[in-house]
Amino acid sequence: MKNSKNLALYTLGVIAVLALPILLQSQGNAWVRIADIALLYVMLALGLNIVVGYAGLLDLGYVAFFAVGAYLFALMGSSHLSDTFPWFKAMFPNGLHTSLLIVIPLALVVAGLLGALLGAPTLKLRGDYLAIVTLGFGEIIRVFLNNLDQPINITNGPKGITAIDSIKFWGLDLGKSWKFDGFTISSVTLYYYLFLALVVATIIISHRLQISRIGRAWMAIREDEIAAKAMGINTRNMKLLAFGMGASFGGVSGAMFAAFQGFVSPESFSLMESVMIVAMVVLGGIGHLPGVILGAVLLAALPEVLRYVAGPLQAMTDGRLDASILRQLFIALAMIVIMLMRPRGLWPSPEHGKTLTKKNGAPVDPTHAAVAPGTLQTHAPGVDSPADEVPGAASRPMSINP
């Protein structure tokens, strides 16, 4: 009965997610664009959750990988390189205009390698020191992108790169509307389904990593790095793998962002973006996939929804209050209230091992539990037969005391 209920809920959820852009499209493409951006932020939050939620490494420079993926697609999907370098134009007169099947693996690999390079000098850092170093790394990438227009124009500096190709694969151009039997599916709706497919793939990979030996090693490092090292876990390689895996999802999300926007500039990759992505993970529930998704959706959509609240308030005060400042104030207040009421996040991971139960479900006090001969010892989870049990004699609770 329970399985059938779960199956019905999953089915309704899938139908709702698939039908959402069609319903939003009837109210205008602006709402579908909000849903598209929310999916990109979900992908970013899931990638950062590997670093922060699983491995316990506070990364405040995660937006750097988002920027690397976006500029990688911008250079490969526009004529910027051909317009700048004559030798490149001789080989590719109109630019590269790379296929999606090449862009996604390349963005994943490049961002992953860059994430491992970031993790290498920070292996011995923890807590606040790690946060400061990663924050500086993110700012360095943004400053580089802002100044790599001289003496060689690679990123076009603060002007950004324009006229970026839309995504094309299998003869379908996501930059154009698709008409089917008199019904029109807009471009932003097509992007929604692509982003949804990438988010689903990210969720599956993250879940498989979480329950794998690698995921358990990350969580052991998060709880106690010294104990994890003592148990034989190679903490250096595990940390580098966490940085690389998390960064790879950021690179793919950045490439999709560049194709969706058709324009990239360093202003899109500021420190505030990194802070917001970290807030999505913390607000939703660190290390819990449904919570991270919920936090990303809420914080991505909340600023746009609050436009409809801040605008009328600005009109009521005759323009004395700026709508953008009011939106930031409302977002900050909402985050403060949520964290005060739900300090572990909106949807935290379930707690395990807090109480011990007998077979009939009644709680057991480990210090006073009496164990019958030949039965499982309830106060030592995972131990079927106590080490100090004497066959044929009454067993006693395991203890460090004589």
TrEMBL record:
<protein>
    <submittedName>
        <fullName>ABC transporter ATP-binding protein</fullName>
    </submittedName>
</protein>
<keyword id="KW-1003">Cell membrane</keyword>
<keyword id="KW-0812">Transmembrane</keyword>
<feature type="transmembrane region" description="Helical">
    <location>
        <begin position="323"/>
        <end position="341"/>
    </location>
</feature>
<feature type="transmembrane region" description="Helical">
    <location>
        <begin position="57"/>
        <end position="76"/>
    </location>
</feature>
<dbReference type="Pfam" id="PF02653">
    <property type="entry name" value="BPD_transp_2"/>
</dbReference>
<dbReference type="GO" id="GO:0005886">
    <property type="term" value="C:plasma membrane"/>
</dbReference>
<feature type="transmembrane region" description="Helical">
    <location>
        <begin position="190"/>
        <end position="209"/>
    </location>
</feature>
<dbReference type="InterPro" id="IPR043428">
    <property type="entry name" value="LivM-like"/>
</dbReference>
<keyword id="KW-0547">Nucleotide-binding</keyword>
<dbReference type="GO" id="GO:0015658">
    <property type="term" value="F:branched-chain amino acid transmembrane transporter activity"/>
</dbReference>
<keyword id="KW-0472">Membrane</keyword>
<feature type="transmembrane region" description="Helical">
    <location>
        <begin position="275"/>
        <end position="302"/>
    </location>
</feature>
<keyword id="KW-0067">ATP-binding</keyword>
<feature type="transmembrane region" description="Helical">
    <location>
        <begin position="129"/>
        <end position="145"/>
    </location>
</feature>
<feature type="region of interest" description="Disordered">
    <location>
        <begin position="351"/>
        <end position="402"/>
    </location>
</feature>
<feature type="transmembrane region" description="Helical">
    <location>
        <begin position="240"/>
        <end position="263"/>
    </location>
</feature>
<feature type="transmembrane region" description="Helical">
    <location>
        <begin position="7"/>
        <end position="24"/>
    </location>
</feature>
<feature type="transmembrane region" description="Helical">
    <location>
        <begin position="96"/>
        <end position="117"/>
    </location>
</feature>
<dbReference type="GO" id="GO:0005524">
    <property type="term" value="F:ATP binding"/>
</dbReference>
<dbReference type="InterPro" id="IPR001851">
    <property type="entry name" value="ABC_transp_permease"/>
</dbReference>
<keyword id="KW-1133">Transmembrane helix</keyword>
<feature type="transmembrane region" description="Helical">
    <location>
        <begin position="30"/>
        <end position="50"/>
    </location>
</feature>
